[in-house]
Amino acid sequence: MPPPRLSLPASFRRRRVPKATLAARRWTSGLPILRRGAVTLREIEEADGPAIVALYRLARVRRHMSQPFKGATEFDAFLEWSRASRLKGRYAGFAIHVAGTRKAVGMIYAWVTARGVAELGYALHPSVWGRGVFLPAARAMCDFAFGAMDIHRLEMRVGAGNHRALAATRKIGARAEGTLRDALITERSHGDAILFSLLSSDGRPVRSAVG
């Protein structure tokens, strides 16, 4: 006579883990390397410090940033914060590399601000402006955010006077939603910012223009 079947309590039954949860567990333990043509994104590390600090010291970049790195000490503090925030599922920051160069030419990140919502930000060295680096880097970041990070809405705040960044943001399909008064507060001034958004359900534009 076969033994009777036991009915296990619900808490003991094996539950199926949602794919989004599995993906989140993977990226929070360590960011993958993302590649789009000649552009590679990898998690920011100590070796990127000199290049990124030098980038933020450039007047052409610094004037558009509210909290640029001032030196190695601030970068080290940021690196510690970024890793702790990644483990909590709140931040994914990548250094941008281009084939043929040894140093990072910029950085790009997605910072989770609410459930399903993240802020996307970036900085690029002027030497690669207009050379086809931004678009593949941004598309790789957006795909990662909408996929592995399970983000539905990406937001971008761009200085109203930063015409190059405004044009670049529109190229990835982001839509302007309005003006945030004096939302960009730099070391020397206050200025308006344009709020853009990009949804996971938005179609991706096919553009040939370089970014």
Structural write-up:
It is a single chain. Helix content is 29%, strand content 29%. The protein has helices at residues 19-28, 49-57, 59-62, 72-87, 134-146, 163-171; strands at 34-36, 39-43, 91-98, 106-114, 117-124, 153-159, 175-185, 190-199. The protein has a single domain (33-199), classed as Aminopeptidase. The termini are far apart. The chain has 211 residues and is of the alpha+beta class. It has an eight-stranded mixed beta sheet, sandwiched between helices. The chain contains six helices and eight strands.
| CATH architecture type | 3-Layer(aba) Sandwich
Kindly provide the radius of gyration, computed on alpha-carbon positions and rounded to a whole number of angstroms: 20 Å
- CATH homologous superfamily, by name? Gcn5-related N-acetyltransferase (GNAT)
Instruction: Report the total helices.
Output: 6
Mean pLDDT: 85
Give the overall silhouette: globular
Helix content: 25-40%
Number of domains: 1
Measure the end-to-end span: 74 Å
Instruction: Briefly note the CATH topology name.
Output: Aminopeptidase
The major sheet is characterized as:
8 strands, mixed
Decide which structural class fits the backbone. Answer: alpha+beta
How many beta-strand runs? 8
Element string (H = helix, E = strand): HEEHHHEEEHEHEE
